[in-house]
What does this fold into?
Amino acid sequence: MANVSDIRNGLIIEFKSGIYEIIEFLHVKPGKGAAFVRTKLRNMKTGKVLENTFRDKDDLTEVRVEKQKKQYLYREGDHVVFMDLETYDQTPIDLEVIGDKFKFMTENIEVGLLVDDKGDILGIDLPITVVQEIVEAEPNVKGNTASGSGKTAKTETGLTVIVPFFVEAGTKIKIDTRDGSYIERV
It folds into this structure.
């Protein structure tokens, strides 16, 4: 059992008959009345984000999550196959569990598989950055480099990223998996 003072980013709780991860919170102390915490919660199964306010008296049920190191091997229909790096056991996981994070995954990438104490797979934890190759990019137009904006490009996994104008097809780039933004050329 946890209370409102234990709220932090990344905390996984049981809430409204689902398992949610706290992705953002703000402690509010109004001039009148009791303090409260305004949060954004992401459903671990569906990825849906909702906002909720917790009062001081509210109790939270924290879910213990174990992170197992796995390697992504390949996609097979609606399943993605991961391999345990120690035992070499292969685990197929439904693509719905991974959701939009699949576009950041290239073959042989190491991820953390999030498993609760009942053995249910809640999702995956990606590394902070990944390297992918650009397969399709808008052409350059003379004079574009003067502005600070960029152009859209598509990576090998189908991810659409805003990149600087000098990035062409065939270039490898580093991408931040938290927000899907371009970091640098590799």
Remarks:
- The chain has three domains: 2-62, 65-125, 129-185.
- The two ends are 45 Å apart (CA to CA).
- Residues 129-185 form a domain with the OB fold (Dihydrolipoamide Acetyltransferase, E2P) fold (CATH 2.40.50.140).
- The mean pLDDT is 87.
